[in-house]
Amino acid sequence: MGLIKRLLYKTRKYYDDDFDWDNYTQSYQRRLKDNESQYRTISTKSQLSFDTATGKVKSEGAPIPPRQNLILEAIGLLAPSSVHEIGCGSGDNLANGMILFPKIRYTGGDRGHTQLELALSRHPQLKGQIGMQDITMPYSHLWPQADLVYTSAVTMHIHTAVSHFVALANMVRMAESYVLLIENWQCHNYVQDIQNMFKGGHLDWSSLYIHRLDGSTGARGILLSKFELKLPILHSDSQMREGAKASAQRLKRGDKDSARGLFGFIRSF
Ligand SMILES: C[S@@+](CC[C@H](N)C(=O)[O-])C[C@H]1O[C@@H](n2cnc3c(N)ncnc32)[C@H](O)[C@@H]1O
Fold first, then answer.
1. Tell me, what CATH number does 226's domain have?
2. Largest CB tally within 10 Å, which of 99, 187, 188, 212?
């Protein structure tokens, strides 16, 4: 087979994640630096508070990243007994959660060994609470269970084969009550994929409500729950995408990812 044919053959069958996760930490550190020029990523106890009346997190001094703000507001709203972050990266979200809501049990997993090292160098208090975990592997009974399982900027980068479906199903199985996703909403057809997975019997819960949860500083989340909450219900992905400039490339890739899903058991007659 000639070179061009071989290249075409390869791109026909295989789909990659956005990054090589085994060599990701250097570029992640650059992103962290950019983020830190705008936001305070690590806070102290006196810098963060949660107002139960408004459901808002208040930050003294510099603002915290909007995605982190939404995670903390979700924890304040839902009051889970335990929280697990998939793809915990720098560990900042977990560490700030521990500061603001110290009675909750926190764990985190990441597939990158150097990502976990980075998290421990920034937050030594996470020792023993974070570990190696690939959420696209078949479900493991050794994974921590938690009341609330969340991701921030993780599944949006997962595009290998049907891995993002596997990740979503695993998160639901790990979660006793809630799954929160904070992602780029054009990278996958999240609402459609979750609806199809639930209908096809791929999600471990007997009931599922797909809500939209907005943070007070601009981040949007999809909140899955076993019971209906007093939040807007999502019926389509357009509700998550409204107001965002469309990226034709991302939307097309998301459609291709969705199209690889084969849901449930389709009997042949
Ligand atoms: C863009 S970073 C986001 C880190 C962190 N959640 C944040 O908000 O800053 C994506 C993280 O997901 C992790 N990751 C990627 N694929 C994963 C997988 N299959 N299982 C667990 N972690 C994964 C990466 O190693 C990386 O730390």
1. 3.40.50.150
2. 188
Query: For each of the chain's 269 residues, which pLDDT tens digit applies?
Result: 678 876 665 555 445 899 999 999 999 999 999 999 999 999 999 999 999 999 999 999 999 999 999 999 999 999 999 999 999 999 999 999 999 999 999 999 999 999 999 999 999 999 999 999 999 999 999 999 999 999 999 999 999 999 999 999 999 999 999 999 999 999 999 999 999 999 999 999 999 999 999 999 999 999 999 999 999 999 999 999 999 999 999 999 999 999 999 999 999 98
Nearest protein CA to atom 25 of ligand 1, as residue: 112
pTM reported for the whole predicted model: 0.94
43 C-alpha to center of ligand 1: Å?
21
- Between the CA of 89 and the centroid of ligand 1 the distance, in Å, is 6
Q: Which residues, judged by CB distance below 6 Å to any ligand atom, belong to the binding site of ligand 1?
A: 21, 24, 28, 67, 86-90, 93, 109-112, 115, 133-136, 152-154, 158
Q: Whole domain around residue 57: which residue ranges?
A: 31-259
Measured from the CA of 21, which atom of ligand 1 is nearest?
25
| Distance (Å) from CA 86 to ligand 1 centroid | 7
3-state secondary structure 155-186: HHHCCCCCHHHHHHHHHHHHEEEEEEEECCCC
Alpha-carbon radius of gyration of the chain: 19
22 lies in some domain: no
Our count of domains for the chain comes to 1
192 closest CA partner among 265, 247, 243, 257: 257
